[in-house]
Design goal:
With 186 residues, this protein is an alpha+beta fold. Helices cover 28% and strands 36% of the residues. The protein contains four helices and nine strands. The relative contact order is 0.28.
Length: 186
């Protein structure tokens, strides 16, 4: 089963994202496959294909992880095209002001790999982001650079979930397998 771990978003922030997607659909109706608002999330870790028997291990470890991760207060995301010169996605990216965040994430990956040895993770630096759309057709880069802007909205991430990603021709469906509240005290 195809799985990932993600932060769930607040309804108020989902509405802001819906507005941005609606605005984007007017500019790029065919060039970009826009994310359905119900599927919006901040990916923490993409696990990929895992054996269904390993879900229990991930759920247990995610419970322990949720005790270590504090609630995240995010402000002033930046609307970005990624990568900038040959874009494949449009997302809202946030800077993290928590120096322990990446260490906790890497430790979690290491422990997961000890329990489920076939897991392989991307070596790229982590960027906390929420994907709004995936670029299907070539887009004029000059036009894109004019649209990078700060999104003046804040949101709070208070829970993290394990999802199964079911892929269909009309688009993915994300099934929530387990939800944990983040540590309120850190």
């Amino acid at each position: 089963m195809r799985t990932f771990i993600a932060y769930d978003i607040e309804e108020k922030f989902r509405r802001v994202c819906e507005y941005l997607i609606m605005k984007g659909k007017k500019l790029y109706p065919r060039e970009i496959k826009w994310v359905e608002p119900v599927n919006l999330h901040f990916t923490y870790l993409f696990l990929g294909e895992i054996d269904p028997s390993d879900v229990k291990v991930v759920v247990k470890m995610l419970g322990l992880l949720s005790e270590q991760i504090p609630v995240l207060n995010l402000e002033n995301g930046i609307l970005k095209w990624n990568p900038p010169f040959k874009p494949q996605t449009i997302w809202i990216e946030y800077s993290l002001n928590n120096p322990d965040f990446e260490k906790i994430r890497k430790d979690f990956q290491k422990k997961l790999c000890e329990e489920i040895p076939y897991l392989k993770f991307d070596k790229k630096d982590f960027k906390l982001h929420l994907t709004l759309g995936r670029i299907k057709n070539k887009i004029d880069i000059e036009r894109l650079l004019l649209h990078e802007e700060v999104i003046n909205t804040s949101t709070t991430l208070t829970q993290i979930s394990l999802y199964e990603s079911l892929l269909y021709p009309q688009g993915p469906v994300y099934k929530n397998l387990m939800v944990y509240k983040l540590n309120q005290e850190k």
